[in-house]
Amino acid sequence: MKRSALILAALAVTLTLAGCGSRSIGNKIDDQFLGPNVATQVSNAHADLASPTSRIVVTAYNGVILLAGQTPRSELKEAAAQAARRVQGVKKVYNELQVQQPASLLARSNDSLLTTKIKTQMVADATVPSARIKVVTENGIVYLLGLVTREEANSATRVVQGVSGVQKVVRLFEYTN
Predict the structure, then answer these.
(1) Whose CB among 29, 55, 71, 163 lies 3.0–4.6 Å from 76's, allowing a Cys bridge?
(2) What are the residue boundaries of the BON domain, all occurrences included (predicted)?
(3) HEC per residue, the chain
(4) Domains of the chain: which residue ranges?
(5) What is the reported pTM?
(6) Architecture of 105-175 per CATH?
Protein backbone atom coordinates (compact mmCIF):
# COMPACT_ATOMS: atom_id res chain seq x y z
CA MET A 1 0.00 0.00 0.00
CA LYS A 2 2.82 2.42 0.87
CA ARG A 3 4.57 1.67 -2.40
CA SER A 4 1.43 2.51 -4.43
CA ALA A 5 1.05 5.78 -2.57
CA LEU A 6 4.68 6.70 -3.29
CA ILE A 7 4.29 5.88 -6.96
CA LEU A 8 1.12 7.98 -7.20
CA ALA A 9 2.79 10.86 -5.37
CA ALA A 10 5.82 10.71 -7.70
CA LEU A 11 3.53 10.64 -10.74
CA ALA A 12 1.58 13.64 -9.44
CA VAL A 13 4.78 15.62 -8.85
CA THR A 14 6.11 14.69 -12.31
CA LEU A 15 2.89 15.75 -14.03
CA THR A 16 2.74 18.97 -12.03
CA LEU A 17 6.32 19.88 -12.91
CA ALA A 18 5.74 18.94 -16.55
CA GLY A 19 2.85 21.39 -16.62
CA CYS A 20 5.08 24.21 -15.40
CA GLY A 21 6.80 24.59 -18.78
CA SER A 22 5.32 25.59 -22.09
CA ARG A 23 6.40 22.37 -23.82
CA SER A 24 4.20 19.32 -23.89
CA ILE A 25 5.24 16.06 -22.30
CA GLY A 26 5.42 14.66 -25.84
CA ASN A 27 7.94 17.35 -26.85
CA LYS A 28 10.08 16.58 -23.83
CA ILE A 29 10.04 12.87 -24.61
CA ASP A 30 10.82 13.56 -28.28
CA ASP A 31 13.87 15.60 -27.24
CA GLN A 32 15.10 12.76 -25.01
CA PHE A 33 15.26 10.52 -28.08
CA LEU A 34 16.22 13.20 -30.60
CA GLY A 35 19.51 14.16 -28.91
CA PRO A 36 20.93 10.61 -28.88
CA ASN A 37 19.68 9.98 -32.45
CA VAL A 38 21.48 13.10 -33.67
CA ALA A 39 24.62 12.16 -31.72
CA THR A 40 24.64 8.73 -33.37
CA GLN A 41 24.19 10.20 -36.86
CA VAL A 42 26.95 12.76 -36.25
CA SER A 43 29.32 10.03 -35.03
CA ASN A 44 28.52 7.91 -38.09
CA ALA A 45 29.03 10.82 -40.52
CA HIS A 46 32.84 10.56 -40.33
CA ALA A 47 35.27 8.43 -38.33
CA ASP A 48 37.04 11.54 -36.98
CA LEU A 49 33.78 12.79 -35.46
CA ALA A 50 33.68 9.68 -33.27
CA SER A 51 37.38 9.70 -32.42
CA PRO A 52 39.18 11.40 -29.52
CA THR A 53 40.23 14.20 -31.90
CA SER A 54 36.66 15.54 -31.72
CA ARG A 55 34.41 16.30 -28.79
CA ILE A 56 30.82 16.77 -29.86
CA VAL A 57 28.08 17.78 -27.41
CA VAL A 58 24.55 17.40 -28.78
CA THR A 59 21.66 19.12 -27.03
CA ALA A 60 18.01 18.98 -28.10
CA TYR A 61 15.30 21.39 -26.97
CA ASN A 62 11.91 21.48 -28.65
CA GLY A 63 13.34 19.99 -31.85
CA VAL A 64 16.18 22.53 -31.95
CA ILE A 65 19.66 21.00 -31.95
CA LEU A 66 22.79 22.59 -30.55
CA LEU A 67 26.10 21.13 -31.70
CA ALA A 68 28.86 22.36 -29.40
CA GLY A 69 32.38 21.20 -28.71
CA GLN A 70 35.48 20.92 -30.81
CA THR A 71 36.63 19.20 -33.97
CA PRO A 72 40.00 19.56 -35.71
CA ARG A 73 38.83 20.49 -39.24
CA SER A 74 36.15 22.75 -40.72
CA GLU A 75 34.91 20.02 -43.08
CA LEU A 76 34.14 17.87 -40.03
CA LYS A 77 32.17 20.74 -38.51
CA GLU A 78 30.05 20.92 -41.66
CA ALA A 79 29.66 17.13 -41.87
CA ALA A 80 28.33 17.11 -38.30
CA ALA A 81 25.75 19.79 -39.12
CA GLN A 82 24.62 18.01 -42.28
CA ALA A 83 24.20 14.74 -40.39
CA ALA A 84 22.17 16.49 -37.68
CA ARG A 85 19.87 18.17 -40.23
CA ARG A 86 19.01 14.78 -41.79
CA VAL A 87 17.53 13.38 -38.57
CA GLN A 88 13.75 13.25 -38.57
CA GLY A 89 12.24 15.64 -36.03
CA VAL A 90 15.04 18.21 -36.19
CA LYS A 91 13.61 21.69 -36.79
CA LYS A 92 16.82 23.71 -36.69
CA VAL A 93 20.53 23.09 -36.09
CA TYR A 94 22.85 25.56 -34.42
CA ASN A 95 26.36 24.49 -35.33
CA GLU A 96 28.57 26.02 -32.66
CA LEU A 97 31.44 23.56 -33.05
CA GLN A 98 34.85 25.16 -32.72
CA VAL A 99 37.65 24.10 -35.05
CA GLN A 100 40.33 23.26 -32.50
CA GLN A 101 41.59 20.47 -30.26
CA PRO A 102 39.12 19.10 -27.69
CA ALA A 103 38.80 21.01 -24.43
CA SER A 104 40.91 19.72 -21.56
CA LEU A 105 39.47 17.87 -18.60
CA LEU A 106 40.10 20.98 -16.48
CA ALA A 107 38.13 23.15 -18.91
CA ARG A 108 35.25 20.66 -18.95
CA SER A 109 35.21 20.57 -15.14
CA ASN A 110 35.12 24.36 -15.09
CA ASP A 111 32.22 24.28 -17.58
CA SER A 112 30.27 21.97 -15.27
CA LEU A 113 30.88 24.30 -12.35
CA LEU A 114 29.78 27.32 -14.40
CA THR A 115 26.58 25.56 -15.45
CA THR A 116 25.79 24.73 -11.83
CA LYS A 117 26.42 28.32 -10.72
CA ILE A 118 24.24 29.66 -13.54
CA LYS A 119 21.35 27.30 -12.82
CA THR A 120 21.51 28.17 -9.13
CA GLN A 121 21.40 31.89 -9.91
CA MET A 122 18.50 31.39 -12.33
CA VAL A 123 16.45 29.48 -9.76
CA ALA A 124 17.08 32.25 -7.23
CA ASP A 125 15.90 34.98 -9.64
CA ALA A 126 12.11 35.20 -9.86
CA THR A 127 12.27 36.94 -13.26
CA VAL A 128 13.93 33.92 -14.90
CA PRO A 129 11.78 30.90 -15.86
CA SER A 130 14.58 28.46 -15.05
CA ALA A 131 12.40 25.40 -15.71
CA ARG A 132 12.05 26.48 -19.36
CA ILE A 133 15.71 27.27 -20.02
CA LYS A 134 18.41 24.75 -20.85
CA VAL A 135 21.97 25.84 -20.06
CA VAL A 136 24.93 24.31 -21.89
CA THR A 137 28.48 25.48 -21.17
CA GLU A 138 31.32 24.54 -23.47
CA ASN A 139 34.82 25.99 -23.18
CA GLY A 140 33.55 28.96 -21.15
CA ILE A 141 30.81 29.79 -23.66
CA VAL A 142 27.28 29.56 -22.28
CA TYR A 143 24.47 28.56 -24.65
CA LEU A 144 20.88 29.24 -23.62
CA LEU A 145 17.97 27.37 -25.20
CA GLY A 146 14.30 27.52 -24.35
CA LEU A 147 10.82 28.83 -25.07
CA VAL A 148 10.67 32.26 -23.46
CA THR A 149 9.49 35.81 -23.92
CA ARG A 150 12.04 38.42 -24.92
CA GLU A 151 11.87 39.90 -21.43
CA GLU A 152 12.57 36.50 -19.87
CA ALA A 153 15.48 36.01 -22.27
CA ASN A 154 16.92 39.36 -21.24
CA SER A 155 16.58 38.46 -17.55
CA ALA A 156 18.29 35.10 -18.10
CA THR A 157 21.10 36.73 -20.07
CA ARG A 158 21.61 39.30 -17.33
CA VAL A 159 21.92 36.53 -14.73
CA VAL A 160 24.43 34.58 -16.85
CA GLN A 161 26.54 37.66 -17.50
CA GLY A 162 26.80 38.19 -13.75
CA VAL A 163 28.44 34.80 -13.15
CA SER A 164 32.22 34.95 -12.88
CA GLY A 165 34.07 32.89 -15.48
CA VAL A 166 31.53 33.20 -18.30
CA GLN A 167 33.41 34.21 -21.45
CA LYS A 168 30.47 34.61 -23.82
CA VAL A 169 26.69 34.12 -23.85
CA VAL A 170 24.96 32.72 -26.95
CA ARG A 171 21.17 33.03 -26.97
CA LEU A 172 19.42 30.33 -28.99
CA PHE A 173 15.93 30.95 -27.65
CA GLU A 174 12.61 30.48 -29.37
CA TYR A 175 10.50 33.50 -28.50
CA THR A 176 6.88 33.20 -27.51
CA ASN A 177 6.11 36.89 -28.19
Answers:
(1) 71
(2) 30-101, 110-177
(3) CHHHHHHHHHHHHHHHHHHHCCCCHHHHHHHHHHHHHHHHHHHHHCHHHCCCCCEEEEEEECCEEEEEEEECCHHHHHHHHHHHHCCCCCCEEEECCEECCCCCHHHHHHHHHHHHHHHHHHHHCCCCCHHHEEEEEECCEEEEEEEECHHHHHHHHHHHHCCCCCCEEEECCEECC
(4) 25-99, 105-175
(5) 0.83
(6) 2-Layer Sandwich (3.30)
